[in-house]
Amino acid sequence: MSSRHPMDFTMAKEDDTFWGRLVESAVGTHLVNSVTGEDVSLGYWREKQNEVDFVLCNEYSTVAFAVKSGGRTYGRGMDAFLRRYPESKVFSVAARADSGSMAIPLEEFLLGNPLDYLR
Predict the structure, then answer these.
(1) What's the pLDDT tens digit per position in 71-96?
(2) For residue 79, is it left (φ>0), alpha (ψ between -120 and 50) or beta?
(3) 8: Cβ contacts below 8 Å, ≥ 6 apart
(4) CA–CA gap between residue 93 and residue 64 (Å, rounded)
(5) Are 77 and 50 in contact (CB under 8 A)?
(6) Rounded CA gap, 86 and 69, in Å?
(7) What is the number of helices (H) and of strands (E) in the chain?
(8) Given 12, 55, 88, 103, which is the most exposed site by the fewest CB atoms within 10 A?
């Protein structure tokens, strides 16, 4: 997505919309690579105005991930998802997590195995 784009890294980080797309694409790519060959489904969830960026499911567990490129780490989509699927686990992945935030820092998420969140 970025290899042929005219923005360099610094410019991309300064453009909130473009940076958000890059962060969400990186998380999505990591999830796709992690579930390939596994008995896990990957999708997203949307109901009216509420959405969750990514949802992982296996026969035992459902996990939702909201991807945030800014400081906010939790949104109404996650609340709505939990009301609809109260047995699920939800996590935020944040590129700019504030100290004390409950969000998973982007770098940590990309270095780990997302399937561990299903356990």
Answers:
(1) 555 678 999 999 999 999 999 998 87
(2) alpha
(3) none
(4) 10
(5) yes
(6) 26
(7) 4, 5
(8) 12
